[in-house]
Backbone:
């Protein structure tokens, strides 16, 4: 079974690259039909172009400048994504919170990747938050989770996969982020492939 996937990004796109590579070498039975970014400079757009994947740029600023609502932005995003008829929508470093205006178009079909374990360190600073908790002696590991996105809550929803990641003495943001990303790349591919196989 081959599924269609839309990938939403905002930045580097190393997880997108992991998906692209896994499609290319047959580990992921999918066709990435579109990559959407809210940031024009996102390197992930370049990764998609190199792989021959259609790209779309959907910035929020013009909506803000025109006093248009976030719901209008999300509705337009849903229309845009729907043009590519994805079975799954993968948020791979997408830095906007998605409202129900978007999510209701893809019930149980939106998958998010977050660099922390369930219930820990939601939001954009999860890696630094984990390092700070480590410095206070509260934790000795953090992790990665992949979950479905049922509603507007940030980095919450039915958990599909988790993996712990140790925090080593002397870790910096860069060293911990590198360790986390290496695990994300593998876990994201495996989890999306499992979703496709289960045909949920
Ligand atoms: C990842 O750490 C992901 O967990 C978080 O954003 C980061 C995206 O990294 N949501 P990249 O753009 O895939 O390199």
Residues:
């Amino acid at each position: 079974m081959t599924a269609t996937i839309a990938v939403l990004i905002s930045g580097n796109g190393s997880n997108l690259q992991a998906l692209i590579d896994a499609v290319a070498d047959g580990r992921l039975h999918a066709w990435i039909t579109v990559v959407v970014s809210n940031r024009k400079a996102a390197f992930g757009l370049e990764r998609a172009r190199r792989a021959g994947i259609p790209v779309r740029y959907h910035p929020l600023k013009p909506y803000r400048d025109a006093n248009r609502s976030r719901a209008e932005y999300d509705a337009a995003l849903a229309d845009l994504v729907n043009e590519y008829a994805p079975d799954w929508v993968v948020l791979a470093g997408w830095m906007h919170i998605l409202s129900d205006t978007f999510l209701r178009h893809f019930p149980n079909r939106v998958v998010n990747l977050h660099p922390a374990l369930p219930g820990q360190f939601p939001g954009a600073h999860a890696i630094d938050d984990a390092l700070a908790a480590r410095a206070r002696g509260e934790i000795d590991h953090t992790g990665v989770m992949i979950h479905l996105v049922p509603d507007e809550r940030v980095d919450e929803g039915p958990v599909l996969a988790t993996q712990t990641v140790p925090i080593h003495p002397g870790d910096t943001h860069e060293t911990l982020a590198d360790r986390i990303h290496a695990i994300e790349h593998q876990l994201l591919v495996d989890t999306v492939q499992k979703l496709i196989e289960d045909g949920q």
About this structure: The CA atoms of residues 116 and 126 lie 6 Å apart. Helices lie at 14-24, 43-50, 61-65, 70-82, 100-103, 126-135, 173-198. The chain is about 40% helix and 20% strand.
